[in-house]
Specification:
The structure holds 2 protein chains of 2 kinds. By secondary structure, chain A is mainly alpha-helical. Helix content of chain A is about 75%, strand content about 0%. In chain A, helix 2 (about 35-60) crosses helix 11 and helix 6 (about 165-185) runs antiparallel to helix 9. Chain B is globular. Chain B has a two-stranded antiparallel sheet. Helices cover about 75% and strands about 5% of the residues of chain B. The chains are: A mainly alpha, B mainly alpha. At the A-B interface, helix 5, helix 11 and helix 13 of A face helix 3, helix 4, helix 9 and helix 11 of B.
C-alpha cells in the first residue's frame, strides 16, 4: 500500500516534469499570438484552480470568494508600482503576503461556519471587497488603474514585443502550484486536510488541529491566488475592480477543479486544459454576436459534467485503473 | 437629516424588505425541505419578470393581474428543474455539496444565456402599468404603490404558505419528508413528488415577486444576480431552512439597506447588508432563527 503510494507519487512527479518540458517547448511550434494567449490563460487558470483546490478541495472548505485574493494580489502590485515605483516582483510577494494575512484574519470568524453558511460568507466578503475598491478614490475607484509602460524587461515584468515571457511565467506559476500541492499532499498537512474534509469531529478527536489546518490551507491558497492576480494585472496592463475582483473569477477558479476532479492532484490541470480553451473558443467564435450562445454551451456542459461525473474527469482514468477507488 | 427623511427611508426600506422576504422565502423552503441551495434562484426571478413583461406586451395583462399566471408558470418550471436536474444532483455520493452548487450554477448560466439569446441584453420595462409611477402619502410619508402592493402580496403569500405548511395534508407531507425522507416512503408518500412540489412552490413564490417587480424594475438577463445575493444573505440571516426566518430576514435586510443609504453613498448601500449578515452569523453561526 505504502509502496504503491510512493510509486504513484514518483510517477506523478515524472509526468509533471515531462508535461512541463513539453509545454516549455510548445512556443517553438505555436507562433500564433491568439493561440499563445489561450495557452497563457489556460496555465493561469490551472494555477489558480490548483491553489483554490488546496482550501476547497483538499480541506473541504468551499470558497466562492477567492476573487478577493486575486484582486488583492493585482491591486497590491499595481498600487505599489504606480504610486511608489516598487518593482512588480516585490509587489507580487507583498500581494501574496497581504492576501494570506487577510485569509487568516477572515479564518478566525469564518471557519466556525459550516456548509452553505461558509460558502455564502465567502461570496459576501468578496463582494464587500469589490464594493470598497469601486469606491476607493486613491486606488482609482471604478475607473481602475492603467499600468504605465516602463519598458520591456524581466526586471520590470513588462513585455511589449512578445507574449512569450508571460507564457513562461504562467508555466512556472502553474508548475509551482502543482508542486506545492504535490508536496503538501504527502505532508502532515495533507493528511490533516483530508481528515478535516471527511469528518471534522472525528479528526478533532484523533488530535488533528482542525482550526489550524484550515488556517494553513487558507493562507497557502490565498498566497498563490494573489500571485496569479499580480501576474494577470501585469499581463493586461490595466485593472479595475470588476475585472480583477468580480464574482466570475471566483467561479472560474473553482470550475476547472470541479470539472477535472476536486481534491485531486490532476483535476485542476485537466479541467483547465479543457475548460479554458473551450471558453475562449466559444467566446470568440459564437459569443461575438453577444447573443449568449457561449453561455448556453458552457452552462450546459457544467450541468452535464457535474451530474454525470461528480468526481470529475480524472475519475475516468482512475476508475479504469483502480476500480473506482479515489485518492 | 431630518426626522422626516429618516421615517421616509425606513418606510421605503420596510416595503423593499418585505419584497426581499418574498424573494427569499422560496429559497428557504427548498433548503429546509432538502438541504439544497438553488444557485439559480436569481434567474428564476429574472424569468418571472420576463413572463410578466411578455404577458403585458402581447396580451395587455397588467403585472398585477398576471401575478397568479406567472406564479403558475414558475411552479411548473420549478418542478421540471427538480425532475431534470436536482433529482440527479441529489444522487451524487461523492462531492454532493459541490454537485448541487455547480449543477444549479450551470443552470443559472444557461438561463442567462437563453435570456440573452431570445430577449437580447436590452433593458425593458412595463410602461403604464396600473400602479406604475403612482404614490400615496400617509402623514407626509410617500409610498410608491407598486412597492406597497409588493409588500401586501408578500404578507399574503407568507400567510398562505404558513397556512399551507401547517394546515393541509400536503403541508404535513412536506414537513414529514423534511424530517425523515426515509420513513415517509413507508407510509406511502412519494419523496420525489413531494420534492418536486416543494421546488414548484418555491419557484411560484419567487414568480410572484418577479411579477410584482416587473411593474417598477428594469428587466434584463442579468437582473437576477444582485437580488440572488441579497436573497442568500436574507435566508442565511434568518437561518437556513426557516421560512419564518427568511421573512424576518427580509425585513431586517430592507431596513438595514435603507439605513445604510442614509449614511453612506448609494453605491455602498449593500455593504450595510453584508456587514450585518457577517455580524449575525459570527454571533449565531446558524442564523437568527435557524435550528439544527
Amino acid at each position: 500500500m505504502d509502496k504503491d503510494f510512493a510509486a504513484r507519487r514518483r510517477r506523478d512527479l515524472i509526468i509533471a516534469a515531462v508535461l512541463t518540458a513539453l509545454a516549455a517547448l510548445a512556443p517553438l511550434f505555436i507562433k500564433d499570438v491568439y493561440v499563445q494567449n489561450i495557452l497563457i490563460l489556460t496555465l493561469m487558470y490551472a494555477a489558480l484552480s490548483q491553489s483554490w483546490n488546496i482550501l476547497s478541495g483538499y480541506c473541504g472548505q468551499i470558497s466562492l470568494g477567492h476573487a478577493l485574493y486575486f484582486g488583492i494580489g493585482a491591486y497590491t502590485t499595481e498600487l505599489l508600482f504606480t504610486k511608489f515605483g516598487v518593482l512588480p516582483w516585490f509587489g507580487m510577494l507583498a500581494g501574496g503576503t497581504v492576501a494570506a494575512a487577510i485569509a487568516m484574519g477572515l479564518g478566525y470568524p469564518f471557519f466556525r461556519l459550516r456548509g452553505h453558511y461558509f460558502v455564502i460568507a465567502t461570496i459576501v466578503i468578496a463582494e464587500i471587497g469589490l464594493l470598497l475598491f469601486q469606491n476607493w478614490e486613491w486606488a482609482g475607484a471604478a475607473m481602475g488603474i492603467t499600468i504605465p509602460v516602463r519598458g520591456d524587461s524581466w526586471l520590470k515584468f513588462q513585455f511589449m514585443r512578445s507574449k512569450l515571457p508571460y507564457f513562461y511565467f504562467a508555466l512556472v506559476l502553474c508548475s509551482l502550484a502543482w508542486f506545492v500541492t504535490w508536496w503538501l499532499e504527502d505532508s502532515k498537512w495533507g493528511f490533516w486536510w483530508r481528515a478535516v474534509k471527511d469528518n471534522p469531529e472525528a479528526a478533532e478527536s484523533l488530535g488533528v488541529v482542525v482550526f489550524n489546518s484550515k488556517m494553513g490551507a487558507a493562507a497557502v491558497s490565498a498566497f498563490l491566488v494573489a500571485i496569479g492576480g499580480a501576474f494577470y494585472a501585469q499581463f493586461l496592463a490595466y485593472i479595475d475592480p470588476e475585472s480583477v475582483m468580480g464574482f466570475q473569477f471566483s467561479l472560474l477558479m473553482a470550475l476547472p477543479a470541479v470539472l477535472g476532479g476536486i481534491g485531486t492532484l490532476w483535476g485542476p490541470v485537466l479541467g483547465a486544459a479543457i475548460l479554458i480553451p473551450m471558453t475562449e473558443l466559444t467566446r470568440s467564435y459564437i459569443g461575438g454576436s453577444g447573443r449568449g450562445v457561449d453561455l448556453i454551451v458552457y452552462g450546459t456542459l457544467i450541468v452535464l459534467i457535474s451530474l454525470a461525473l461528480p468526481q470529475g474527469l480524472v475519475s475516468l482514468f482512475s476508475r479504469a485503473k483502480r476500480k473506482g477507488a479515489t485518492r | 437629516m431630518t426626522a422626516q427623511t429618516i421615517i421616509q427611508s425606513l418606510a421605503s426600506g420596510l416595503l423593499m424588505g418585505l419584497l426581499y422576504g418574498l424573494i427569499a422565502v422560496g429559497l428557504a423552503l427548498i433548503f429546509g425541505l432538502m438541504d439544497v441551495v438553488n444557485f439559480a434562484h436569481g434567474e428564476f426571478l429574472m424569468i418571472a419578470m420576463y413572463v410578466s413583461f411578455f404577458l403585458f406586451t402581447f396580451f395587455a395583462i397588467d403585472p398585477l393581474l398576471s401575478a397568479p399566471l406567472v406564479a403558475a408558470a414558475l411552479f411548473v418550471f420549478g418542478a421540471v428543474v427538480y425532475l431534470l436536474i436536482v433529482r440527479f444532483a441529489m444522487r451524487a455520493k461523492a462531492n454532493a455539496g459541490m454537485v448541487q452548487i455547480f449543477s444549479t450554477f450551470g443552470l443559472a448560466i444557461v438561463m442567462r444565456g437563453l435570456a440573452q439569446f431570445f430577449f437580447t441584453p436590452d433593458y425593458r420595462s412595463v410602461p403604464h402599468s396600473w400602479l406604475g409611477g403612482k404614490t400615496i402619502s400617509i402623514a407626509g410619508v410617500f409610498l410608491p404603490e407598486p412597492q406597497l402592493m409588493g409588500a401586501l402580496v408578500s404578507i399574503l403569500a407568507f400567510a398562505g404558505l404558513y397556512f399551507f405548511i401547517h394546515r393541509t395534508d400536503f403541508g404535513r407531507a412536506l414537513e414529514a419528508t423534511r424530517e425523515d425522507p426515509g420513513a415517509v416512503a413507508l407510509v406511502g408518500i412519494d419523496k420525489n413528488r413531494v420534492f418536486a412540489l416543494g421546488w414548484g412552490l418555491g419557484a411560484a413564490l419567487v414568480g410572484l415577486a418577479g411579477a410584482i417587480m416587473a411593474s417598477f424594475f428594469y428587466i434584463y438577463p442579468d437582473v437576477g444576480a444582485s437580488f440572488a445575493l441579497i436573497a442568500y444573505v436574507t435566508v442565511a440571516l434568518g437561518g437556513f431552512g426557516s421560512v419564518f426566518g427568511a421573512f424576518a430576514g427580509g425585513i431586517i435586510v430592507g431596513l438595514v439597506e435603507a439605513t445604510t443609504a442614509l449614511v453612506l453613498p448609494p453605491s455602498l448601500k449593500s455593504v450595510g447588508i453584508y456587514a450585518v449578515y457577517l455580524l449575525v452569523v459570527f454571533i449565531r453561526p446558524r442564523g437568527l432563527f435557524g435550528s439544527m
